[in-house]
Amino acid sequence: MISFSPDTGIWLLTTPHTSYALRIDETGAPRHLAWGPRLTLREAEGLLVPVESAGDSFEGLPPVGEELPVDGGTRFGPPSLQVRYADGSRAFEWEPVGHRVHEPAPGSTQLVLEFRDRVHPLFVELHYRVREDTDVIERRTVLRNAGDQRVDLLRADSAAWTLPALPDYRLSHVTGQWSAESQLRRDALPYGETVLTSRRGITSHHANPWLMLDAGDATEDHGRVWSTALAWSGTWRVTAQRTPDGRAGWTGGAGHEGTSVPLAPGEEHTTPVFAGLCTDGGFGAASRAWHAYTLAHVLPRGRETAAVLYNSWEATGFDVDEASQKALAERAAALGVELYVVDDGWFGSRRSDRAGLGDWTPAPGRFPDGLGPLSEAVHGLGMRFGIWVEPEMVNPDSDLYRAHPDWVLHIPGRTRSELRNQLVLNFARADVADWAYGWLTRLVGDHAVDFLKWDMNRAFSEAGWPGADQGDDRLWSAYVTNLYGVLDRLRADHPGLRIETCSGGGGRVDLGILARTDQAWASDNTDAVDRLAIQHGYGQVYPARTMSAWVTDVPNQLTGRTVPLRFRFHCAMAGLLGIGGDLTRWSREELAEGAELVAEYKKVRHLVQHGAQYRLTEPLGDRPTVVQYIAEDAAELLVLAWQYGPRHGTPRIPVRLPALTPGARYRDTRTGTVHHATVLTEYGLLLDLPRGDWSSTAVHLVRLPDSD
């Protein structure tokens, strides 16, 4: 709901549990008033205080507090909007020109505040969208050049966010690297500016475009938390600042420093959504709110139940042929797998990562009749058929590169740096994007492909676009826009197609790519122990319904660690269960246990994929790592727990289970034991973890009818 007070100029955005208030001040600038618990318009008016004139202070305007801080005047903080006009001048002065309120879809309302620069014909719109079923507020900015000369957007953030004055500020975010993504950090927000960014052309393994702030006193279950997430899959930057006068805020959007967006006469630029959320109930409540929002309003089919998949990579590597894939498919089907995915190595001259990328036709020596016979065999076994692709990449040793060396990102006269023996195709070019769409839609249609694992295995380098007007700056956003366009066209052509986003693991996971895909590969690291920490960080914002996780062989290819099969399964069951081991080498006992655990997952996956998630303990401490998933009506729940070698004498502490129906009783489906909800919530469940290293358990509880 959106309301307005003409007497005070206050706009009030109301969500189910929070309010967001702003007004246009005496200078014409949009200024923040409040973001927190719900207010009425009259209550919001009580927040009005006279704006101190910049001329009365040596410091100038406060560095936080505006809805979109601009470059110009007596502003000295990080600008959200920084422009350069044709005459070389910069700055922006707000001049309000109107507003609009409309309903873009049932259950949602959008406010658009319209401005222009006082000197140049540059128009700016601030968009705010609220929905009836979530506290998430979606914000973005639209800029239009109404003049007859080019304007350069040196910085065009989607939004800036301001916190109320708090006694302290703590920043939560994730860092990492390839195979060690999503490592959660919680630290005091330093004074000055803290920059989180990716300069790699992708969301990156090293940071993710979300953050959470609190007063330093929030826990998993208690305290107020403010958080934001950017829906963009290219380079990005978020700058948080803590000012000497005790305030904090942040600004964020697409692009990194040193690049600009050229805006030609009559051209319009729309920034990606930068969504924000204020919650009470600690970090857990914030995560659950983001999960619910993503399932309802981001994923194309968030309510759909994902299949159990098998992927051939760790079993075969590049040694892929029709006979071996059919043999693996038969074993996968016997385990209860529902989706069989052929990974790298099926096309062109692909025998290693040195050649073949770009030549997307089945290797005739390995698939003499194409992929049709394998697809038919997989479907005949009752499974869907999937395949790995990497459309944005090319090996220099490929027919495609020999025909189109100009299609890659490059700067004339400069070295074309290779990573993983490959170069990046310039998806900012319409002909490249159209080429990719063409072979992809034929591949899917001609071979009855149900699922694409879409990979992207390296960062940008020599990011040039020779011959295009301002191409070196335009490519950063045009690349992502065209990538989105290819995905959108594919899904429109093939409504039954499902897509997994992958970028050397978790290098491209964000709300922008999840709006066009169905799930994400969180990391190339399949070690079940390492995965507990990766999945803990991943789940701070992104729901388990999007997190693909595999059971692979031991010793693990990356870490050399050996843990029991059950532990590996229980770890992967915390998301979308997949299997990636070499089934031809599994023993009869392992195959039997695997089939049993696949069947067990199918009975509870609706809870993992669509239930509310509660992180009951931190990962990999002296106590077990415990996660709970519970149905919306609390009729059943799943508890997963992992323990890695407790020290002798470590006390066994019961785990308290939240969100149960008060006064109800719950039956353990494995043991038949009946538990009282009050006991489980107030006194806890004593987990039956086997003794020894790397033990795990899954407890499925179902609420009993009142008469039982």
Automatic annotation (TrEMBL):
Recorded hits in PANTHER family, A to Z, give: ALPHA-GALACTOSIDASE C-RELATED, GLYCOSIDASE FAMILY 31
Q: What is its EC number?
A: 3.2.1.22
Gene3D superfamilies, alphabetically?
Aldolase class I (3.20.20.70), alpha-galactosidase from lactobacil brevis (2.70.98.60), Golgi alpha-mannosidase II (2.60.40.1180)
Quickly give the catalysed reaction: Hydrolysis of terminal, non-reducing alpha-D-galactose residues in alpha-D-galactosides, including galactose oligosaccharides, galactomannans and galactolipids
Q: What class of enzyme is it?
A: hydrolase
User: Is Magnesium among the key words of this record?
Assistant: no
* Entry annotated with the keyword Thylakoid: no
Domain Glycosyl hydrolase family 36 C-terminal: from-to ranges = 625-701
Name of the protein this chain belongs to: Alpha-galactosidase
The family database entries (Pfam families) matched by this protein are listed as:
Glyco_hydro_36C, Glyco_hydro_36N, Melibiase
Q: Which family does it belong to?
A: Belongs to the glycosyl hydrolase.
Keywords attached to this entry: Glycosidase, Hydrolase
Span list, region Disordered: 246-266
Q: What region holds the Glycosyl hydrolase family 36 N-terminal domain?
A: 28-264
